[in-house]
């Protein structure tokens, strides 16, 4: 993943993948055909119950944006994740966190 480039995707309220940028599919190493319409936890079972999954549920329940840093389920290291509620689901973006020992990991929090 290139420094500064963000991956984007949208989910419905049941956390099924509705769309993603071509860049996101490239990062995930999968095609749209094999992913669209499937639940995120079916595509990435190790997400279930983790910090990103919890943040997605928080954004759905509170209808407020959520930002967090979390271990990546696909990339090495951490990613910064931004989750924005939509009328019918969520828009999510993520990018790798630049290495910095001065910045501790953050828990999901509404902003």
Layout of strands and helices, then pairs:
Elements: E1 7-12, E2 17-20, H1 22-28, H2 32-35, H3 40-43, H4 51-62, E3 66-71, E4 78-86, E5 89-96, E6 109-110
Antiparallel strand pairs: 1-2, 1-5, 3-4, 3-6, 4-5
What does this protein look like?
The protein has 111 residues and is of the alpha+beta class. The longest helix has 12 residues, at 51-62. It has one domain: PAS domain (Beta-Lactamase), CATH 3.30.450.20. 24% of the residues lie in helices and 32% in strands. It has a 6-stranded antiparallel beta sheet.
CATH architecture descriptor text: 2-Layer Sandwich
Question: What name goes with the CATH superfamily?
Answer: PAS domain
CATH-derived topology: Beta-Lactamase
Structural class: alpha+beta
Give the strand order of the largest sheet, numbering strands 1, 2, ... along the chain: 2-1-5-4-3-6
What helical percentage do the residues reach? 10-25%
Total tally of structural domains? 1
Rg over CA atoms, rounded to whole Å, is 13 Å
Distance between the termini: 26 Å
Spatial shape: globular
